[in-house]
Specification:
Elements lengths: L1 H13 L6 E4 L20 E6 L3 H5 L7 H14 L5 E4 L6 E3 L6 E5 L5 E6 L3 H4 L9 E5 L6 H14 L5 E6 L17 H18 L7 E6 L11 H6 L8 E12 L3 H6 L2 H4 L2 H9 L2 H9 L3 E11 L11 H15 L2 E8 L22 E2 L10 E2 L4 H10 L5 E5 L8 E8 L2 E9 L14 E4 L9 E6 L12 E2 L23 E4 L3 E6 L1
Parallel strand pairs: 1-18, 2-3, 2-12, 4-6, 7-8, 8-9, 9-10, 10-11, 11-12
Antiparallel strand pairs: 5-6, 13-14, 15-16, 16-17, 17-22, 18-21, 19-20, 19-22
Helix pairs in contact: 3-13, 10-12, 12-13
The chain binds 2-acetamido-2-deoxy-beta-D-glucopyranose (12 copies).
The site of one 2-acetamido-2-deoxy-beta-D-glucopyranose has 7 residues, from α10.
Length: about 525
């Protein structure tokens, strides 16, 4: 007994212990290989905020939301720029600008559905809560087939936000869902392309916009199985012909609670799964390549794990942080430039068969105000993923990333980051499942870094009480929690054991800084 304890103690100091799964990083080139990503955009981690609920997240000009301000500042501190913000989503397509109107007014049905969002110049003061380095996607109404509504909205953006802070203009949201609603049944990608060409030509002339000021696409449906509305199809249909496309974007939701069939498979174990995540993101690679082939970037203009506002006990857990970090780093490795994580609240009109009742979405990265659903305003348990991703990207604007498969550890996602030409960081995400009720070493992996580690390597760790935990205080990045937007607790910077082994417990992630 005594001897065994002594032996275990000794093992803990001289290498991986017996119960652990072992994994070795393959050797990784010291400079970025040909097939690493383009330079990472420092705003890789960006946000989309449902237009009708913008003020819930931002506050207003006289009372900005301090939690939102603090959380966004955490990102800016790490990357040197604020995240992009896209006030958009389904409700942009029933929005109207009126220069005499108050900042934001919702017209609602008796069931709580929003059929119109009217906004005035005061709305632009909401945006002061974001860092000055934040750029905005100026989304305008395409759902209402009246181009003057879009014109007046674009003109309002130009009047109130300086041109260098407008990333791109965007026409409408998820136009692939317009057929049989705001457009005739049979509405196709060719109809979208023709409309895009006509409207952008008019807006460019009317508002003296420069060439290539718009992001095209913004489609909802996954680009698989003969899907008509894709980046590749609209390029083939001539969407570049009005010289108005800056970049392409599509939306990405791996799971859904919009109907019972999809709700059934939107489970936490299915979400927290590297094999599932990479297979899903890979469906978008042909669209990224189609955009890149015509010299344009591809971004994911709106996304989260589960559409129709997420799922209780799934997307409001720390497991969402693992899903988010892996989805974003893997997407970056296949040249998706930025990703706009959607924030909002349940939309009654989105689906008549959805699982969710009204209230802040279950996937929101933070709960900006006190509510009955969530209690006090605070960061969600998945917020720490934003810090991990921001530190993986860094602040140079010259980092490149590759995914590094580890065949004998399929639940361990590994990413190499070369910064300014040199191998600089390794992100390791252990998507093995450890719940609150699990043993602490459930699914733990000892990762041998001898292929890459140099002396002086340091480690920062993302952890939580378990993948099913909703306790934000228990979620940590480098030893600190960020529940109210500021770092609480002492920062913990670790060193690899023996200089070359890092233990990543189940449902944890680390960055090794070389
Ligand atoms: C992990 O490696 C250690 C030391 O190299 C070894 O003793 C142990 O058996 C290995 N564990 C597994 C599960 O292979
Ligand atoms: C990149 O190329 C290397 C060397 O050819 C190869 O081993 C690796 O699997 C490739 N990585 C990706 C992500 O394609
Ligand atoms: C701004 O928000 C605060 C807090 O919700 C509210 O009291 C105030 O009336 C709002 N101001 C305007 C101009 O709407
Ligand atoms: C968070 O808490 C700290 C310490 O109590 C306080 O200094 C800070 O102002 C709070 N931040 C927010 C956004 O409430
Ligand atoms: C952002 O810009 C505004 C207006 O130029 C200025 O008042 C404010 O101090 C700036 N904020 C920061 C954090 O630099
Ligand atoms: C389009 O806008 C007009 C003018 O404001 C409005 O009357 C109409 O209801 C809108 N249509 C839809 C489908 O929202
Ligand atoms: C732009 O369009 C509006 C109508 O939507 C019109 O009143 C205005 O004269 C146009 N301006 C230019 C420069 O074409
Ligand atoms: C995802 O992973 C689970 C294992 O947890 C598997 O059973 C499931 O079929 C996978 N696929 C999807 C689409 O969730
Ligand atoms: C989530 O968990 C809570 C507490 O266990 C439970 O009351 C609730 O019904 C669960 N929600 C769903 C959608 O499963
Ligand atoms: C992830 O899903 C794959 C199938 O897609 C399965 O083989 C694997 O065991 C799952 N991993 C976990 C941790 O459940
Ligand atoms: C973890 O919790 C989830 C959600 O409650 C459950 O579906 C899963 O089976 C649990 N996994 C483990 C390894 O305990
Ligand atoms: C990982 O699990 C071990 C138990 O195997 C525990 O001692 C350790 O504190 C855990 N590490 C972290 C960072 O939670």
């Amino acid at each position: 007994m005594h001897l065994a304890a002594a032996l275990l103690g000794a093992l803990a100091f001289c290498g991986p212990s017996l119960g652990l799964q072992n994994a070795s990083l393959p050797s990784i080139p010291s400079s970025p290989p040909e097939n690493s990503s383009f330079s990472l955009d420092r705003a890789l981690f960006s946000f989309s905020i449902e237009f009708a609920y913008l003020d819930s997240f931002t506050g207003n000009g006289s009372a900005p939301n301090e939690l939102t301000r603090s959380l966004m500042a955490q990102l800016e501190q790490r990357t040197g720029v604020g995240p992009d913000v896209r006030p958009g989503g389904i409700t942009i397509d029933s929005s109207i600008f009126n220069r005499n109107a108050p900042p934001l007014t919702l017209s609602m049905s008796s069931s709580g559905g929003i059929y119109r969002t009217t906004f005035g110049p005061g709305l632009y003061e909401f945006l002061n809560v974001f860092p000055n380095s934040t750029k905005f996607v100026a989304s305008v109404n395409l759902g209402n087939a009246t181009v003057s509504i879009a014109r007046d909205e674009a003109a309002a953006w130009i009047e109130h936000i300086s041109a260098d802070r407008i990333r791109a203009f965007e026409l409408g949201n998820e136009a692939d869902h317009y057929g049989g609603g705001s457009r005739p049944t049979g509405w196709s990608s060719a109809d979208y392309t023709a409309t895009f060409l006509g409207w952008t030509a008019f807006l460019k002339r009317n508002l003296s916009l420069p060439d290539n000021a718009f992001q095209a696409g913004s489609f909802a449906d996954d680009p698989i199985k003969g899907e008509d509305f894709t980046t590749a199809n609209i390029i083939a249909e001539g969407v570049l012909d009005s010289n108005s496309v800056m970049l392409f974007n599509q939306h990405m939701y791996q799971y859904s609670t919009c109907d019972p069939a999809r709700n059934a498979i939107a489970t936490l174990p299915n979400l927290v799964n590297h094999t599932n995540i990479t297979a899903f993101v890979n469906e978008f690679v042909p669209q990224v390549q189609a955009a890149n082939a015509v010299g344009k970037n591809f971004v994911v203009g709106e996304f989260s794990s589960v559409s129709c506002s997420g799922k209780q006990n799934v997307t409001d857990t720390y497991g969402q942080a693992l899903w988010l970090a892996d989805t974003m780093l893997y997407s970056a490795s296949v040249n998706i430039k930025r990703m706009y994580l959607h924030q909002g609240a349940t939309l009654v009109f989105q689906s008549s068969t959805q699982a969710n009742a009204p209230g802040f979405s279950w996937y929101d990265l933070w709960y900006p105000t006190e509510t009955e659903r969530y209690g006090s305003a605070r960061a969600s348990p998945s917020f720490v993923a934003a810090l991990l991703v921001a530190e993986a990207v860094g602040s140079s604007g010259k980092a490149k990333i590759s995914s590094v498969p580890i065949p004998n550890a399929p639940d361990l996602a590994a990413y190499a980051v070369w910064d300014s030409g040199e191998l600089s960081r390794i992100a390791l995400l252990n998507l093995g499942h450890r719940n609150v009720s699990s043993a602490p070493d459930e699914a733990a992996v000892a990762v041998d870094l001898s292929g890459v580690a140099t002396s002086g390597a340091t480690v920062k760790r993302m952890t939580g009480l378990g993948m099913d935990s909703k306790d934000t205080d228990g979620t940590k990045w480098a030893g600190q929690s960020f529940t109210n937007g500021t770092a609480t607790g002492d920062e913990v910077i670790e060193e690899p054991e023996n200089g070359n082994v890092v233990i990543v417990n189940g449902s944890e992630g680390v960055i090794v800084f070389l």
